[in-house]
Amino acid sequence: MKPEYKNWMPKGMVMGSAIGAGVCILLLVLFGCTPLLSSGSVKTVLTIVFAVISVFMTVMTIWMFMMYRAFSYDGKRQMSRQIIDGLAHYVHIPDGGIGLDVGCGSGALTIACAKRNPKASMVGIDRWGKEYASFNLPLCVKNASAEGVSSNTEFKKGDAVKLDFDDESFDAVTSNYVYHNIPSSDRQKILLETLRTLKKGGIFVVHDIMSRAKYGDMEAFAAKLRSMGYEKVELIDTTDGKFMTPFEAKWMGLSGSKILMGKK
Prior knowledge:
By secondary structure, this protein is an alpha/beta fold. It has two domains: 11-71; 79-263, Vaccinia Virus protein VP39 (Rossmann fold), CATH 3.40.50. The protein has nine helices and seven strands; from the N terminus they run H-H-H-E-H-E-H-E-E-H-E-H-H-E-H-E. Strands 3-2-1-4-5-7-6 form a seven-stranded mixed beta sheet, sandwiched between helices. Strand 4, helix 6 and strand 5 (198-209) form a beta-alpha-beta unit. The mean pLDDT is 94.
């Protein structure tokens, strides 16, 4: 059985955009190139409107398709696999310990960490919203089974804004491209909620688009963590060739991607 981690750019979104572009182009042809409407201001306005929308939707569809190809686990680029494996490399859990992966999606990072730490266990949580309908709990369980880590993985519903776990419950906490998707004016607060569940001596590895617009001053936040007693706190740029090139980060909308990591 082969795992199916899906795609961070869901096929449904690509197809939806393509259908939308097709409908707009059809309406452009109907209103602008047929006698359906007589010549006049209404015909002109509708032609211009649908021409603009058609161009926008076509560009969006092309961008989404390129993202889909770049993220695909079966394609040539396989950026998703590179990122997941790269993050799991930093996650070391003591034998008998337990880690938490926030926003586990299809279970890729949870499973990668479980494979690297076979004598520890991982818990993956997600709300599995309708915008990513192809990502769900049964898929995570199926992938864990396919990868041979059913015995040391667990998946459950959870909310990153308010985690249903006690303080200092985990030996490691991880997350990948999650928090920027959560509507919030204070994502640093969400990070602190995640770190709340980390045991003394535990490690954290969080990867996201940590631009100032989305997160505020992350250098200041890293300094704040150090003042709170966290050790080896680092911000690692992943757009300089580590996971992606600067050009890829720019056209994919991933500029500002960083790993925040350290030890409690």
